[in-house]
Amino acid sequence: MKKILAELLTIGDEILYGQIVDTNSQWMSVELDKIGVKVIRKTTVGDEEQEILTAFAEAEKRADVILITGGLGPTSDDMTKPLLAKYFNCVLDINEEALAEVTEFFKSRGRELTELNRQQAALPKACEKITNPVGTAPGMWFNKGEKVFMSMPGVPHEMKMMMTEQVLPRLTKKYQLPVIHHKVIRTIGVGESFLAEKIADWENSLPSHLKLAYLPSLGEVKLRLTGFGHSLSELERETSEYTEKLKEPAGEYIYGYGETPIEVVIGNTLREKKLTLSIAESCTGGFLSHLMTSVPGSSDYFLGAMIPYAYEIKMRQLGVKPETLEKFGAVSEPTIIEMANIVRAKFNTDIGVATSGIAGPGGATPDKPVGTVWIAYSDKHHTVTKKLQLSKDRMINIRLASMAVLNLIRLSIPE
User: Fold this and answer.
1) Fewer C-beta within 10 Å: the chain N or C terminus?
2) How far apart are CA 307 and CA 309, in angstroms?
3) Where are the domain boundaries for CATH 3.30.70.2860 in the chain?
4) How far apart are CA 393 and CA 374, in angstroms?
């Protein structure tokens, strides 16, 4: 079965200037994926005639479906409609059905239809008018052989309505579409390149219709296994089989699947095991607690936290021994062990975790550069520590250290 390829073309200087964020393309990509249309490119062009015409021509060479948003307003800088007429070698003419719709739109709101608004009903003769039920700019559907051009308003709620009610159903009717199935495997505690080496043999064993993508982010790497075929159930079976085989080379790093983040996985584990958690975080400044409490129902297992940022608070409020801080410093294994053990005792929880480090950009010493972080896990059976050497960026260090603690919890919770 032939893959149907799509290109998303966004028109408008305001997007190139960064004045408006293009959220339309992301939403459209998700919806097209659901029906088996593969998006191969997203292009943004400004309000320049030749740039837009060139974009039309290049998109037609690459894709079967060209979905265009923006530039359909009634003002002089809205160029999409006249340039589509030029591209399809036809004239703009008042579409009576579109005129009736735009007239009713203004009448229903008690507003007068101006000549400028009337021009919203002027459409290229080569197109099929697509009704816009929530706005004044109609959509335009062009057939060019087996290819489709579809122009829609850039206003998100207008575009979404048009896509959902008109465009997606038309595409499924016009093309014989394959099934696309994604399986996301979430890993933590391993870098992208190291993971790629670990799973190279597994990746090479994948059949040609299963494709692997690496999706790294701060603290974790997602693996997306994408299958193309005729049967959803068959693709689900295959991806499940290969996911199971992945556990042999990479099982120690896999923490979950799909869209469930590590803080939700940890929360579910704590709830299932009926364990409680408390936190003493210094360099992460509350971010770790924020991750834990961002999960609905986290009060089932998360009892509270302290942020003993200063030496004095570590001693007076938390209870770290002055001699420990004096001898080893705040960023040290002995200090982090005390922090985790003490917070667990103070909050009477099953588990205590702690962070202390040099987030940067200041505070470094010759033996403790920026990015040096100690983390600890403590329960009644054992205490586990880890030293991290992170980056020079403060916010990245806070995020990475918090993710490292969540992974430490995952690895240290008793079976």
Assistant:
1) C
2) 6
3) 179-257
4) 17
Q: What pLDDT, on a 0 to 100 scale, did the predictor assign at position 151?
A: 97
pLDDT at residue 77 in the model: 78
**Rounded CA gap, 404 and 214, in Å?**
20
If one looks up domain 4-174 in CATH, what number appears?
3.40.980.10
Identify the band that residue 103 occupies on the pLDDT scale cut at 50, 70 and 90: confident
* CATH 3.90.950.20-classified regions of the chain: 262-412
Write down the pTM of the prediction: 0.80
**179-257: what fold?**
Alpha-Beta Plaits (3.30.70)
The C-alpha atoms of residue 81 and residue 274 are separated, in whole angstroms, by: 62
Q: What is the predicted pLDDT for the residue at 26?
A: 96
Pairing mode, if any, of strands 351-357 and 372-378? Answer: antiparallel
The model's pLDDT over 90-102, given as tens digits with 9 standing for 90+, comes to: 999 999 998 898 8
Of the candidates 354, 385, 383, the residue with the CA atom closest to the CA atom of residue 285: 354
pLDDT digits (tens, 9 = 90+) for 247-264: 999 999 999 999 999 999
Tell me the C-alpha distance between 277 and 279, whole Å: 7
Distance, CA of 280 to chain centre: 30
- Residue 217 dihedral angles phi and psi, to the nearest 5°: -145, 180
Rg of the chain's alpha carbons, rounded to an integer?
28
Determine the pLDDT at residue 119.
85
Q: Is the pLDDT of residue 106 over 90?
A: no
Checking if the pLDDT of 116 tops 80, the result is no
**262-412 homologous superfamily:** CinA-like (3.90.950.20)
- Closest CA relative to residue 191, chosen from 404, 409, 406, 410: 404
